[in-house]
């Protein structure tokens, strides 16, 4: 186990990458779990009416919200567009467009509480790569009655650090939102790392922090609650229970320019300690990252999976589905989805997992981000 105090003594020494390799969380070896006897079933619902990927999302009143992200192109053309999907509507009537978010951002962290939807951070068009458009620390709130409110402008509320590719989950038991990791700006903060890179290149730094936000008071409750043993972006974040206690998992993801990680870290809220659990079957960015939990099991699907040194092509896109049982600390393979992609919005509504949108990067076409419209569902 790793306590926050012990980890603070090691920050800045490259411990994140070292521990990942020593603990078997390297992306270089694929660990294939056994296939489940009952593997669930995939279906399709009404596709996105427009193409945008790496959006934020959340569920309010049984409806899925899909906001921000970028459109198809060789750049990263961020949008403000906000869409809502009603799973109870007939196909053809499920999607509607509502008020756009206050600023065009891609890879914002979307989290919904009981009555509000929040957007934390995100990167502007063509940022943060190149250094001219750094990631943001803004906080927006949405309600169906009032639309979007820029809490940063209205009340001075900000994320503790600039971010994109940060992930989060709402805990109804204590009423707090927990935000985890994410890419960040070029910085000397002890909580951030560029994973041993020689340069200070924009886009290579990640954060290790978990921080807490109070959606009722609309304030940061704890800017530095805990720090993961390695800094990473796009982790799959999941709130689960085991042995009668509650834990937060940060599974797989990416470490800046150092490449993918399969690490699976569990944070104990009671003991304020980290445990290194069974690594994910594959290292990289899963598509389902926003608390994809059904009946206390975590469902990880889609994504990009590769090893350092690989030639990047569409071959790194995987149509996979892995179930993680936190009680057994074990993964199982489930039936595969149909469409390869990364950067979708995922949400659980009435026990069904929705995986919406995303893109495929065409490396041989000048890095074209080809956004897709797919709206797949997984039923356990």
From TrEMBL:
InterPro entries reported in the protein's UniProt record: Kelch-typ_b-propeller, TAT_signal
Where would one find coiled-coil regions in this protein? none
- Superkingdom per UniProt: Archaea
Which UniProt keywords are given for this protein, alphabetically ordered?
Answer: Kelch repeat, Repeat
Residue ranges of region Disordered? 31-54
Protein name (database record)? N-acetylneuraminic acid mutarotase
- Provenance organism: Halopelagius inordinatus
């Amino acid at each position: 186990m790793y306590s926050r105090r012990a980890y603070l003594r090691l920050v800045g020494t490259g411990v994140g990458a070292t521990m990942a390799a020593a603990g078997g969380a390297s992306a270089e070896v694929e660990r294939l779990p056994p296939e489940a006897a009952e593997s669930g079933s995939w279906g399709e619902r009404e596709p996105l009416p427009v193409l945008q990927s790496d959006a934020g999302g959340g569920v309010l009143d049984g409806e899925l919200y899909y906001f921000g992200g970028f459109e198809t192109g060789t750049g990263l053309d961020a949008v403000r567009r906000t869409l809502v999907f009603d799973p109870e509507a007939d196909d053809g009537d499920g999607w509607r467009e509502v008020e756009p978010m206050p600023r065009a951002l891609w890879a914002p962290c979307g989290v919904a509480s009981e009555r509000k939807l929040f957007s934390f951070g995100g990167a502007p068009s063509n940022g943060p790569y190149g250094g001219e458009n750094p990631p943001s620390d803004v906080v927006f709130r949405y309600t169906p009655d009032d639309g979007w409110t820029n809490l940063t402008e209205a009340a001075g509320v900000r994320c503790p650090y600039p971010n994109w590719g940060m992930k989060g989950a709402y805990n109804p038991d204590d009423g707090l939102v927990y935000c985890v990791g994410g890419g960040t700006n070029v910085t000397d903060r002890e909580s951030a790392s560029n994973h041993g890179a020689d340069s200070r290149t924009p886009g290579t730094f990640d954060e290790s922090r978990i921080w807490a936000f109070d959606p009722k008071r609309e304030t940061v409750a704890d800017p530095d609650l805990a720090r993961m043993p390695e800094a990473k972006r796009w982790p799959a974040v999941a709130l689960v229970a085991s042995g009668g206690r509650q834990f937060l998992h940060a599974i797989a993801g990416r470490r800046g320019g150092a490449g993918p990680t399969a690490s699976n870290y569990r944070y104990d809220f009671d003991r304020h300690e980290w445990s290194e659990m069974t690594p994910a079957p594959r290292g990289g960015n899963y598509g389902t990252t926003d608390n994809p939990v059904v009946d206390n099991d975590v469902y990880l699907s889609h994504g990009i999976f590769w090893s350092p040194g690989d030639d990047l092509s569409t071959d790194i896109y995987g149509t996979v589905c892995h179930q993680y049982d936190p009680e057994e600390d074990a993964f199982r393979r489930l039936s595969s989805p149909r469409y390869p992609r990364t950067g979708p919005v995922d949400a659980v509504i009435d026990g069904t997992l929705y995986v919406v949108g995303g893109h495929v990067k065409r490396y041989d076409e000048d890095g074209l981000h080809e956004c897709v419209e797919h709206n797949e569902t997984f039923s356990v």
